[in-house]
Amino acid sequence: MMLLTAERTPAGTSYLATGQGQPVVLIHGVGLNKEMWGGQIVGLAPHYRVIAYDMLGHGASPRPATGTDLLGYAEQLRELLEHLHLPQATIIGFSMGGLIARAFALHYPQHTQGLVVLNSVFNRSPEQRAAVIERTRQVAQYGPNANAEAALTRWFSHEYQAANPAQIAALRQTLASNDPEGYLTTYELFATQDMYQVDQLDSIRVPTLISTGELDPGSTPQMAKELAELIPGAQVAVLAEQRHMMPVESPRLVNQVLLDFLNRAQTSENPAKGIVA
């Protein structure tokens, strides 16, 4: 088992780092923390330097100031890279982390070696937007635990939930223990920023992979394909029979997709565009 000790940047960001080689940074989803990446840390660290951190308002990192926007979350990542003396890294963001990864690539292209957006949102339909706004209202009224059971049902297959009750219970506890203000600030951004600087996406000129699960109801294959169309040279990988939390439910499958992309990106400025079923 790989045992890691969390460290902190001068600004208070809590992070884990292991492995050698080109740096890869992992950004978790709203309500979660850096611990969600255990399967990816084990799978990627033999080949890359892997850094996972707690976004603002989550885990052991500080709460975001009131009114913090996506740029503020991207600036947290910039401070982390500066602390680690890393001029560039490949940024891998999951769900809300995918929005932060996109914002980072837009605002800090000089620090972005590659971009991976996993199970993230883009161009929600009116119905999807109304549903997530309603969830935000519930979070504001009842706190981080407001949508936990519905979220777990969306995130995992029934089979995985039944086979891993201890892990599901731990995730339920993680959601419930979030700082209410930090969680709400982050969730409001998650609910409203799926079209963040959409007219600037064609300025992203690094190797890019957009991936989601075939059965992800909130971060759909259509979203992934539409987002990839706006980023020059972006690849799409839709993983068959996978739901939202595919990095946790199917780490070997996700790791293989990530390693294939990362290895190709090492040998090419921009991998050939394509759709992987």
Instruction: State the CATH architecture.
Output: 3-Layer(aba) Sandwich
* Alpha carbon gap, first and last residue: 33 Å
Structural category: alpha/beta
What low-confidence regions span 5 or more consecutive residues with pLDDT below 50?
Answer: 270-277
Radius of gyration: 17 Å
Lateral arrangement of strands in the main beta sheet: 1-2-4-3-5-6-7-8-9
* Proportion of strand residues: 15-25%
What would CATH call the homologous superfamily?
Answer: Alpha/Beta hydrolase fold, catalytic domain
Number of strands: 9
Task: Specify the biggest β-sheet.
Answer: 9 strands, mixed
CATH C-level name? Alpha Beta
N-to-C SSE series?
EEEHEHEHEHHHHHEHEHHE
User: What's the CATH topology name?
Assistant: Rossmann fold
- Quick one: overall form? globular
DSSP helical segment count: 11
Q: How many structurally independent domains?
A: 1
Helix content: 40-55%
**What do the pLDDT scores average to?**
94
What does this structure look like?
- The protein is α/β, with parallel strands linked by helices and 277 residues long.
- It is 43% helix and 16% strand.
- It has helices at residues 38-44, 70-83, 96-107, 126-142, 148-155, 158-163, 165-176, 180-192, 221-229, 246-249, 251-267, and strands at residues 7-8, 14-18, 23-27, 49-53, 89-94, 112-118, 208-213, 235-239, 274-276.
- A nine-stranded mixed beta sheet has the order 1-2-4-3-5-6-7-8-9, with helices on both faces.
- Strand 1 (7-8) and strand 2 form a beta hairpin.
- The longest helix has 17 residues, at 126-142.
- The relative contact order is 0.15.
- The model is unreliable at 270-277 (pLDDT under 50).
- GO terms for molecular function: catalytic activity.
- It holds the Pfam family Abhydrolase_1.
- InterPro entries: AB_hydrolase_1, AB_hydrolase_fold, AB_hydrolase_sf, Epox_hydrolase-like.
- This is 3-oxoadipate enol-lactonase.
